[in-house]
UniProtKB/TrEMBL annotation:
Belongs to the DOCK family. It comes from the Eukaryota. GO terms for cellular component: cytoplasm; plasma membrane. Residues 902-957 are annotated as: Disordered. This is Unnamed protein product. Residues 466-878 form the DOCKER domain. Coiled coil: none annotated. One of its GO terms (molecular function) is guanyl-nucleotide exchange factor activity. Residues 918-928 have a biased composition (Low complexity). InterPro entries: DOCK, DOCK_C_lobe_A, DOCK_C_lobe_C, DOCKER_dom, DOCKER_Lobe_C. It holds the Pfam family DHR-2_Lobe_C. GO terms for biological process: small GTPase-mediated signal transduction.
Length: 999
């Protein structure tokens, strides 16, 4: 092949006769095709063969050509004839190179079109990153591109030969077995299809870095467009009254023709206004106004397809010709061309907009005429748009261009408002516009971890559109990746919330059947079984993450489904058993509450999706404000922390340049409606359910004591309930109120009572579990108890809790406006005295001997400082508590409570003999239910006494059984000022439309 290459460039080309020259090129091309079409692929030989073709092109075409044959152009016509052959060979080599993994990043390369063998190997500079490219495919690209340009130069000669029916290559008839005749291209539609596949791969290259090698990419697009425009002229369409002649091969040809042609106009190298100045000038010098040229070629070809419109259609749609073969181009899954048409219409080019709008409108009218519905068009368009917008090689339109497209096509529409097609057409355009806007927003999100959460939210919104058009695969894959990511970090709560998103897209339908799913992995099963499996997985993850409130809601939802949708005794038994375990853990397992923070993003340095927004973040347990400061500064590089709320208000009113963060600690709102007669753990459970309200309090200036202490309490209500996906939720409503001094007193006493109740619960539970008193006295909780008791019975700073007596005996108590507050404050104060008395007795029984003098001082101070309250409540402060009797009393109280519960449950089943039998089973300690009740570890009596403990189990169950799994978990932040989410109705498969209520 090296000898052939040198011969083509040698003296024979210029000195020998025309016959000798033709013989030279005939035999040279025979050698080339024997190598390229050989069954055994030899990459090195193929590269040298491609060098021969390039050498023949250099001597016969271009400014520096040696052969001048203006009359016959026999050599050039031969070279145009081998274009479709090389396209077919290129497809074969393309598949081979990818199968052999030859298109991989590497640091060595060889010269293109080498003239020596073996090929010299060069090494890429160490400063340049590894690039993925394949030399032989690059050489195919260059040769085919030049052949396409040559085809345009020989356009008139090719038309003349085909018009005269000439199918002979003249002097090169010896190559006919390799290249065929001119007429074969017209009569055999498979050859154009092979060409289009190769040209598509050239315009979307993955065998070299297209975004970087932009000159080669621009030249490939230009040459492919030239070839496509001329090739379409030679392909004849059958008459409109014989649609059966419009074969599948012809349909594939025209689909690829429009797709590839339009792709040339929508690539980055064609949308030169988005390139930098030097690159823009270089590309324009190579391609010129490529988009206008594509628009003309598309318009001419599009006009060959439609049929004349009837008078009724002209009046209804305002078009003179449409349908025809248009309907055969955009059916079923053949919507890639449709997607390219829409992107073509979004270009900043007047001709592209004009031609693209007309094509889109023709397609809409054609679909409506044939199907009387645009859902199938919407379904396929959304799916294809998603693939296009996520392609980094694509030009991405801007929101203004999407808006202009929608306005232009609405102006083009002549459909009357009263026409039945009007609203479906407008809805289709609106959905496409919204989807493109979301896709544009996704690509516009900057890289970096600070935007990961928002990027995930936008992906979820995009997934909702795909769910609407029966394309659940993307959502399933996205949620599966989130689920695996959180599991790898041992974040089981977030993993469960991720599954919640997927579960909410299914219905409790035992009839609808779903195919198998790979990510996450599920077998083919009914929709009910799929959702059941997801809820079970969610509940287990919540239990593992110690978020038992969410686990209860999962099992309650399953119970409702088993009772109402698909009655299942085994399922009911399973759920009740799991609920028993969860409820027992809720009452007996101590859990640490996480910290919560409010964060406000201020300044123009934040993107519009974050600017001015207020969020609630869930932090770690006991996380300090300085820790969250460091975390947020790392997440938002360059941000400055605002220290005061007044300064934050000024920045919110007049946003500055830069990034500013205002962060403060907030606490969950405690519902005062929760009965204080319940145990502390039960109260905690009820308050943690559906947690979406948080409170922050700051002291107003001018206060000197508790009687004039006014505070400002800010309440934040979030879009989502906590725990929330990604541990944050946007604040949807903020309320600011001023608290009077007496309300501040009530608030302080409530916090103190809660703190003391927690310590009492911990000590009594430890005693009941048989923990040695010495171990308890050496624990951290006991040290905290000593510290809190000492500070409460006699606080030398600010007067302690005794200072609140002024509200009970002073002027405020006589004001009718504060009657309710005074009563509530009195109850809180009395509860505090009772708790102090109980805890001092426990402290006395557990305190080590070396600390007993300090304990006696605390008792004396308690009796002295709270003498009036002790006498009023008739509390016994003298008697000594015996630990053995206390433990026995706690255990006896539990047994008594269980017996009361048995009698209560037995009475509910009284009636028929069957019911009586059930009742006896419940009261029988040998039955499974009786064993459960007899062994139930009930700690409620230790806090509230035996009078109310018998109904605790019912109280907990009644408080939770009516709740459903909060839909807020499956919702996510939408556009500013809105909440986006979905709930699925209808079947997702089987051709029926899935309606997702987009909030």
């Amino acid at each position: 092949m090296l000898f052939v290459n040198r011969s083509v460039l040698g003296f024979l080309v210029t000195t020998a006769s025309m016959e000798a020259r033709d013989l030279l090129f005939t035999n040279a091309y025979k050698c080339v095709f024997q190598v390229l079409e050989n069954e055994t692929i030899d990459i090195d030989a193929a590269r040298m063969a491609l060098g021969v073709i390039l050498s023949s092109l250099s001597v016969s075409f271009g400014k520096d050509k040696i052969i001048i044959d203006n009359e016959k152009k026999s050599l050039q016509l031969l070279q145009t004839q081998i274009t479709h052959v090389l396209c077919k060979i290129f497809n074969r080599y393309y598949d081979y190179c990818h199968a052999q993994k030859m298109v991989t990043p590497k640091r060595t390369y060889t010269q293109l079109f080498p003239s020596v063998y073996p090929f010299p190997v060069n090494t890429i500079d160490s400063n340049v990153p590894d690039e993925a490219f394949c030399e032989v495919l690059l050489e195919f690209n260059v040769v085919i591109s030049w052949l396409c340009v040559l085809t345009l130069d020989c356009e008139e000669d090719i038309k003349r030969l085909i018009g005269n029916g000439v199918d002979d290559i003249g002097m090169f008839h010896g190559l006919r077995p390799y290249v065929g005749g001119f007429m074969e291209y017209v009569t055999d539609p498979r050859k154009p299809v092979n060409n289009h596949l190769a040209l598509k791969r050239l315009t979307q290259p993955d065998f070299y870095p297209g975004p970087k090698w932009i000159s080669l990419k621009a030249f490939s697009n230009l040459s492919c467009q030239h070839y496509l425009a001329e090739a379409a002229v030679f392909v004849q369409l059958p008459p409109l009254d014989h649609p059966e002649l419009f074969t599948k091969e012809m349909q594939d040809f025209w689909i690829e023709f429009f797709s590839t042609n339009l792709r040339c106009a929508t690539s980055k190298v064609a949308s030169i206004e988005h390139l930098c100045i030097l690159t823009k000038r270089a590309v324009y010098n190579i391609t010129g106004d490529l988009r206008t040229r594509v628009a003309g070629a598309i318009e001419r070809s599009w006009a060959r397809f439609p049929r004349p419109a009837t008078p009724e259609e002209i009046q209804r749609f305002g078009i003179t010709a449409f349908d025809g073969y248009h309907g055969m181009l955009f059916t079923d899954d053949n919507v890639n061309a449709l997607t390219e048409v829409m992107l073509f219409s979004l270009q900043r080019n007047d001709r592209c907009i004009e031609v693209g709008i007309n094509m889109c409108y023709d397609i809409i009218c054609c679909y409506w005429i044939h199907q009387q519905d645009l859902y199938e068009l919407e379904r396929e368009t959304i799916s294809a748009l998603y693939d296009c917008f996520l392609n980094p090689e694509r030009y991405t339109p801007e929101p203004a261009e999407v808006k202009n497209f929608l306005v232009a096509i609405q102006k083009r529409s002549a459909i009357d408002v009263e026409d039945e097609a009007y609203h479906p057409a407008m809805k289709y355009l609106q959905v496409c516009g919204e989807f493109m806007s979301e896709a544009i927003q996704l690509k516009a999100i900057p890289a970096g971890p600070e935007f990961d959460d928002f990027r995930t939210f936008v992906k979820l919104r995009i997934s909702s559109y795909l769910m609407n058009v029966d394309k659940p695969e993307l959502l399933q894959s996205l949620i599966h990746n989130m689920y695996e990511h959180y599991l790898s970090k041992n974040d089981y709560v977030q993993a469960g919330l991720s599954l919640q998103l997927l579960a909410d897209t299914y219905n409790w339908d035992p009839v609808a059947y779903l195919p198998a799913c790979n990510a996450p992995q599920f077998p083919a099963q009914s929709e009910f079984k799929r959702k059941e499996a997801l809820y079970t997985m969610m509940a287990r993850k919540f239990v593992k993450g110690n978020r038992l409130e969410q686990a209860v809601e999962c099992y309650d939802e399953l119970l409702d489904a088993y009772r109402d949708q698909n009655f299942d005794l085994i399922g009911l038994s399973f759920c009740h058993g799991e609920l028993c375990k969860v409820f027992k853990s809720l009452e007996s397992v101590g859990r640490i509450e996480p910290s919560y923070f409010m964060m406000q993003c201020l300044g123009f340095g934040f993107p519009t999706e974050n600017r001015g927004k207020v969020y609630i973040f869930e932090g770690e347990a006991f996380e300090h404000i300085t820790s969250i400061h460091h975390r947020m500064v790392r997440m938002y590089p360059g941000a400055k922390i605002v220290k005061t709320e007044d300064e934050a208000k000024k920045l919110a009113a007049k946003p500055p340049i830069g990034k500013y963060l205002f962060i403060k600690t907030v606490v969950p709102y405690r519902n005062k409606a929760v009965s204080k007669q319940l145990s502390f753990m039960t109260q905690q459970y009820l308050e943690r359910k559906e947690l979406n309200t948080f409170v922050s309090t700051r002291r107003l200036p001018g206060s000197s004591n508790v009687t004039n202490l006014w505070t400002e309490e800010t309440t934040y209500e979030t879009e989502l309930t906590f725990p929330a996906l990604m541990n944050r939720s946007e604040v949807k409503q903020t309320n600011v109120v001023k608290l009077s001094p007496i309300k501040n007193a009530v608030k302080s006493l409530l916090e103190k009572n809660g703190e003391l109740s927690t310590l009492e619960f911990w000590i009594k539970r430890s005693l009941k579990e048989g923990i040695d008193p010495k171990t308890i006295s050496n624990a951290t909780h006991f040290n905290n108890l000593s510290r809190i008791l000492a500070g409460t019975v006699d606080s030398p700073v600010n007067g302690g809790v005794g200072q609140y007596r002024v509200f009970l005996t002073g002027v405020i108590s006589d004001d009718p406006e504060y009657d309710n507050d005074v009563v509530y404050l009195k109850n809180c104060f009395d509860n505090l005295i009772k708790l102090l008395n109980n805890l001092l007795k426990l402290h006395e029984a557990l305190v080590p001997a070396n600390l007993r003098p300090q304990h006696e001082v605390m008792v004396e101070l308690f009796q002295k400082n709270f003498k009036a309250e002790i006498e009023e409540l008739k509390l016994d402060t003298k008697s000594v508590l015996k630990l053995d009797e206390l433990v026995q009393a706690l255990i006896s109280a539990n047994i008594r409570n269980h017996r009361n519960q048995n009698r209560l449950m037995s009475s509910n089943y009284a009636g028929s003999s069957t019911d009586m039998q059930s009742s006896s089973n419940l009261s029988n300690p040998n039955s499974s239910t009786g064993n459960f009740l007899a062994n139930r570890d009930d700690d409620t009596s230790s806090l509230i006494g035996s009078n109310t403990s018998g109904s605790i189990h019912n109280s907990i169950h009644s408080a939770s059984s009516g709740s459903k799994l909060s839909s807020a978990v499956s919702s996510f932040s939408g556009r500013p000022g809105s909440t986006a989410g979905w709930s699925a109705t209808g079947s997702q498969y089987g051709g029926k439309r899935t309606v997702l209520n987009y909030k």
